[in-house]
Amino acid sequence: SGTSMACPHVSGVMGLLKAAHPNWSPAMMRSAVMTTARTQDNTGAPMREMDGKEATPFAYGSGNVHPNRAVDPGLVYDITPNGYFTFLCSLGFSTKDLSRLSSGKFTCPAKPPPMEDLNYPSIAVPALRHRMTIKRRLKNVGRPGTYRASWRAPFGVNMTVDPTVLIFEKAGEEKEFKVKVASEKDKLGRGYVFGKLVWSDGTHYVRSPIVVNALD
């Protein structure tokens, strides 16, 4: 168990995905592995820590990997090189800092978006103050379909998704959505709390863990 075993297993799965989808970006493959993972153990019960307590995404990440499901995830969260560069700008790096990475072809926006907007398959808000809106973008890598959102908000956090329905008419089509989170004043001070977001067309289940630390 642990990272010593997870690393070679996931590396092997990524090799299989690259063989099945040679044109997918590394971010698309990572998304497929993460969003098709499951948080139950091999008995169907929630995964637990060594002391018997129910585990959280801080222990299992996205969950147990399912390679066959990862080959056909339905939707993926893709990230371009410019997406990573913009994320680094949000962390305080300058255009000059990134010049070697970008070969001088990227300029930081005047007002970088929040770092939470990196199009990653999970959502983490390490310092929620009152409320925040997080943006994500999904790409269809399967058949045309209609995906509906369902979610479980972290404890003490009001959460909404807009829109709640995404209609994809062709492969490669991308759609954006927003996740809005707001802290409940009488339930602060519990540290990191956990939830999830699932997009499904009835066949595919695109899962994302959500982690929020509400400060005020």
Portion in beta strands: 25-35%
Rg over alpha carbons: 18 Å
Q: How would you characterize the largest beta sheet?
A: 5 strands, mixed
Strands of the widest sheet, in order across it, are 2-9-8-4-6
Mean pLDDT: 95
Q: What is the β-strand count?
A: 9
Global outline? globular
| Tally of separate helices | 6
Class from secondary-structure proportions: alpha+beta
Domain Subtilisin-like protease fibronectin type-III: 117-212
Domain Peptidase S8/S53: 1-48
GO molecular function, one term: serine-type endopeptidase activity
Family: Belongs to the peptidase S8 family.
Strand and helix map with partners:
Blueprint (H helix, E strand, L loop, with lengths): L2 H18 L5 H10 L21 H4 L6 H5 L3 E2 L4 H10 L8 H4 L20 E6 L2 E10 L4 E8 L4 E6 L2 E4 L5 E10 L8 E9 L4 E10 L2
Parallel strand pairs: 2-9
Antiparallel strand pairs: 1-3, 3-7, 4-6, 4-8, 5-7, 8-9
Concise overview:
With 216 residues, the protein is α+β, with helices and mostly antiparallel strands.
Structure description:
24% of the residues lie in helices and 30% in strands. It has a five-stranded mixed β-sheet, with helices on one face. Among the domains are: 3-71, no CATH class; 80-117, no CATH class. The mean pLDDT is 95. With 216 residues, the protein is α+β, with helices and mostly antiparallel strands.
